Every structure is written in C-alpha cells, then in structure tokens.
Amino acid sequence: MDQKLNIGVSACLMGQEVRFNGGHCQNHFLRTTVAEYASFFPTCPEVAIGMGIPRETVRLEYDENENVRMRAPKSGEDYTETMNAYAKDWSDQLDQLDLDGFVFTKNSPSCGVFRVKIYKNDQPAERRGTGLFAKAIMDKFPELPVEEDGRLSDPVLRESFITRIFAFRRVKDLFFENWTRKDVIEFHSREKYLLMAHCPKTYRELGRVVGNMATYTREEFHMIYLKTFMTGINNKASKGRHHNALTHMAGYLKNHLSKEGRQELANTIDSYRQGFIPLSVPMTLISHMLRRFNENYLLQQTYLSPHPHEMALRNHS
C-alpha cells in the first residue's frame, strides 16, 4: 500500500478527555500498532452536539411507540433529534473521508455497536441496542468494517477487523481509476483463499459476477462486486474455514513433497484446527514450502499476508 488507512474512531479512544466524566478510554492497540498504518478521524458526537464535559449521563429508552430515544434519565432531556441530525451530517461525509473502518466505544448510547442497553419504564434493560451515531454510520455504509474497542482485546476479533479494513482498502483501490477486466480477474484470483476462509459461498458468487461482467455497466459491476466482496469478508473466518483453505493450498504441494512431508503439513494444519497452535504456525510452514517450490500462483495469495506481518496478529489467533 502506498497510503495509510483511514479509520474513523470515537475520540475518547484516542485519549481525548471527552467522556461524560471528563476522562478518556485510550485504546493502546489503536494508538500504537494501528497508528503506524492508519490516519484517524476522531469524533465525539455527544460533545459535538453541545452536551458538554463533564455532562449528565444519557441512555437509550423506548418511548410509548417502541421507538428508541436517547435521553438523560436525571433531567429528562431528550437528545434524539439533535444526535440523529449530527449523525446524518457526519455520515453524509463518508464518501469524502474515504474511511476504511470505524472503531466505536462499547456500551455507549451514541457509539456502541453491540448489545447496548435499552430501557423501558422500570423493567430490566434489554441488551439489544445500537448507539444512535453508530447506527447511522452503519446504515449509511453497511460495507464499512466496524468494531468496538472492547472487542479488540480478543485476538481473533482483532485480527478479523484488521483483515477487513485492509481488504476494504484493496477492493476500493481496484476500482479507483481506469480498471479493466484483467485487473478484476487478477484481483479476484489473488483474493481466492482469503474469501474461502471467510465465506466460500461469496467466492463462488463473485466468480459468477465476474463471469457475467459484460452484462453490467461499469458502475453496476463496481458496486455489485464491492458490496458482495465485503459481505463475504465481513463474515468471521472460522477455524474450520481456515482449515479448508489451508488444506486446499496444501494440495498444490503434494507432488513436491514426500509422504512424510505431506503428513507433517497435514498434521500441522489439523493441530491448528484443534486449537493446539496459532494460525501463524501452519501459515509459516506452508509459505516456506511455497517459496521453496516456486508455487507463484499461491505466493500471490492475499491470504498469506492480509495485513503487515509486523502487526503479528496471527500469533494468537
């Protein structure tokens, strides 16, 4: 890549003291590891709409029509319309910002993505909501990879998110200027095993889309391919799918290896599937063998290096 990634982020995760209590929740992984490869676009929607620092707490509540509102339970102030208006203005800028991903703050009534509490009268809160600002961004651009800061402490989810944002950057770069059918076919070929690890069905579907490229306008094909590609990549890669992709790659080496060598590779891949070793071990072994036997088609696969090795994300996944 010749340019840094563009990542939207809740401002408190960058160390800005904008939380309701005047503090922050700086995310070390973003500020150190990711910062080497990305430019950040921070925002705190609650501060942006004038709620102040510090400020009273707000939460999501159902109104009498089962609509979700963002209210301050102490004062009764309703910030829903103001927040929705700000979220719309921000989401309307997404094309200009050219974001590759967004990291939101967990549990936030404005920025939470998963299982945000929604209250109704005196009943126990339901953990089924999404913050108003985060929802607007996700609705506007469903292909955009998103994650919460708390989930980035999980090595599998962390690796998945970084894989997704780099993939989004690649597919956007593919269609940046005067792309050709040859460019698309080469891209699709390079992404084969990464797609197989995330969603084999999407790989097959995209193959049909590429095969029928002549039936679409350029803009139609661009949007269909990008949306379908990211739908597949945004699926979580499972150990079973990784095992399947690695086994397919190992098949290219069967004529180069002795019986013992084939068994060693198969055992290593299976040890990963059973959770005994991290993904980096079979990846390193198979990459070494591919270089040794000059299997150039597989050496070009994005799957072998979907993000910089220096990030060491597969050492724990």
Automatic annotation (TrEMBL):
Protein name: DUF1722 domain-containing protein
Top-level taxon in the UniProt lineage: Bacteria
One of the Pfam families matching this protein, by short name: 2-thiour_desulf
All copies of domain DUF1722, residue ranges: 192-308
Entry-linked InterPro entries: 2-thiour_desulf, DUF1722, UCP037004
PANTHER family named among the record's database cross-references: INNER MEMBRANE PROTEIN
